[in-house]
Amino acid sequence: QTGFHSVGAKMATSAATRAASGAGRVVKPIFSRDLDEAKRRVRELYRAWYREAPNAVTMYQLDISAKQCREKVREMFDRNRHVSDPRVIDMLVIKGKMELQETINVWKQKTHVLRYFHETETPRPKDFLSKFYSGHDP
User: What pTM does this model have?
Assistant: First the structure.
C-alpha cells in the first residue's frame, strides 16, 4: 500500500501508541498537590460558607434561621463527601467559591438561594395512581 492509505495507517498507529503511552502518565493537578491539601481547601471553603450563612439569611430576607442555613451548607458538603480525586475536589471547591462570591455580592436573587432549600422536599408523584392518591392533577 502506498499513498493515502499507508499514511492513514501510520497516523492511526502513532495515535494508538500515544494513547497507550499516555495512560500511565500522571495528570497535572489543578490547585492541590495531594488529597490532604484538597481537604484543607474544602475545610476553608466550609468555614467561609458557615460564617456567611447568617449574613445571607439577613441579606436575602430568607424565612429560615441561620441554623437551618448552616445545616443546608453541611448537607451540601456531605453530598460530595465520597469524592477522593484531588482534581475533582478542586473543581468542586472552585464552584463553591464562585457560589459564595455570588452570594456575598448579592448577584443572586432570593429565588436562586431558595432553590437550595427546595431540593430536600419530597419529589412530586410521577405515576397516575400516586398523583390521584396525593390529590395532584394527572
Answer: 0.67
